[in-house]
Amino acid sequence: MKGPTLNDLIDKIKGQVDFSKVGMIACHNGVVRGASRTGQPVEYLDIDVDAQRWETILGEMRSQPGIAALEAYLFTGRRFVGDDVMFIAVAGDIRENVLPVLGKTIDRLKEEAVKKREKLL
């Protein structure tokens, strides 16, 4: 399953921001872990998304103070250990604004928009 790279997201952001107002781009690259949170071996994840909720969350996070741009991509379908799952890149003025938005975006997308099912070994 082919999708963009994290660098593609960064390049998109660089093409749309005013660097007189941007001091950092912070990124997240989520991958399929080899073990569940309880320590059981994982064979794969099946991933789906509520696209409307995904877009709503991204819009809300893009409007946070100091944020110049935010791009995200979710690989859906079956993903195996080591496969990329979710890319997020956030550009903004200072780290005190950017890093919390990156963390909040990860948490909200995973809790509210991403649907995943682990297949344990």
List keywords for this structure.
about 120 residues; alpha+beta; Aldehyde Oxidoreductase, domain 3; three-stranded antiparallel beta sheet; 6 strands
Kindly describe this structure.
By secondary structure, the chain is an alpha+beta fold. It has a single domain (about 5-120), classed as Molybdopterin biosynthesis MoaE subunit (Aldehyde Oxidoreductase, domain 3, Alpha-Beta Complex), CATH 3.90.1170. It is built from three helices and six strands; from the N terminus they run H-E-E-H-E-E-E-H-E. The protein has helices at about 5-15, 50-60, 95-115, and strands spanning about 25-30, 40-50, 65-75, 75-80, 85-90, 115-120. Helix 2 (about 50-60) packs antiparallel against helix 3. The model has no long low-confidence stretch (mean pLDDT about 95).
Helix content: 25-40%
- What do we call the CATH homologous superfamily? Molybdopterin biosynthesis MoaE subunit
Which fold does the CATH topology refer to?
Aldehyde Oxidoreductase, domain 3
Number of strands: 6
Number of helices: 3
Principal-axes geometry comes out as elongated
Largest sheet: 3 strands, antiparallel
Question: Runs with pLDDT <50, length 5+?
Answer: none
Q: Which class do the helix and strand fractions yield?
A: alpha+beta
CATH architecture descriptor name: Alpha-Beta Complex
CATH class value: Alpha Beta
